Amino acid sequence: MKTNALAQKKESRSTGVLRLSGAAVGLCLLLLTLSSAARQPNIVLIMADDMGYECLGVNGSTSYKTPRLDALAADGMRFTHAYSQPLCTPTRVKIMTGQYNFRNYRQFGRLDPAQKTFAHALKAAGYTTAIAGKWQLGHDKTLPAHFGFDEHCLWQLTYEKKDGERFANPLIERNGGALPRDEDVYGPTVFADFACDFMTRNQDGPFLLYFPMVLVHNPFVPTPDSPEWEKGDRHKNNNRHFADMMAYTDKVVGRLVDHVASLGLAEDTVFFFTGDNGTNRKITSMMGDRKIVGGKGKMTDAGTRVPLIAYWPGQVAPGSEHGGLVGFEDFFSTLLDLAGIDNYSASSLDGRSILPILRGESAKEKPWLYCHYDPRWGRSNQWRGRSARTTRYKLFADGRFYDLRNDLDEAIPLAVNALSDDARDVRKQLRAVLDDMERQGSVMSPEGAP
Description:
The chain is α/β, with parallel strands linked by helices.
């Protein structure tokens, strides 16, 4: 541990100068341990773009190789029932504010400037904060700072997607200015460079790095590790490049973990890795013999179930697994807990901290998850809806009730008059959740407006 290394250095410097008594050495070690324990941990929150649960080898994928992420899970905790919103901006608003979408989601591609984010809270608690990767929360270069980030390196900040892509020859803005365009430059590498530089400059900590990645969103184009890259064919969209993009995501995560270790901060840094929604619908992945068609934009498991890994040496038990429910509303509360912030108004948040789970402490399981989904993306109502779920059952506001253990694709609703006693009890509980959310204001008109 870092504490032991410090103690050894102190002891070695005392040799030949001052012989400390055993009691004195013990007191020094105790003080050092208490000092280390009181230190606010650095936090690195990585969120891949359009990566469903089925994409990681550790989750059973047989389509892609993710050795670094698999190792991160082996050395940390893997969550098997973590759920996002079905689409990117709704998820970004939810994770950053800790609230269900009906409370503060107003428009696709925008975060209401009146909202408070986890960056605000941690910055006020002494953290240096940065965001790198995909923005998509409003076109104004002052917004990252407005939402609590000291530094930023972003795609889709003041420019529209039509102005420039995020991969080869990327259009990226860093701390208010556009970086030079270069066909030989790969956007995900730029973001990783920034992230490592930020952590190096702030290694005395504590720091918060929020890394909403641009990978593995379409277009599915070559990475610098693809054969096509050296041939100069870097912009051709082909589904077969998705596997290369998965591999590069894995590589970037491994680079960040290695960099933190090289700074001697491994035990002082918490890593989270997750995805913002399900995989693109054009991508079919294999989990053994089972085909998983991407469900991005849908309220099904394929659209909302995402990977989640937590890694914190010395705090999170290696190879641990949690099969209970975790929602994106829970991240804000968890970051507050990690930072030791206990004066934040819990009434303004919809989630609960998973820190006790990370530490292996006895914790009451989350009984249900709620999803309000109204993306306001175009005029179609086909994706709008509300649902409440357990790990096994899901109830929609329109009455559809599914047993996900036996019908993961939600193809055949259960007949209410044929339910088991257990299923009937769960349905009653979930209906009470939906009714309560309706009373709180989670109601949508035919046009999708609360």
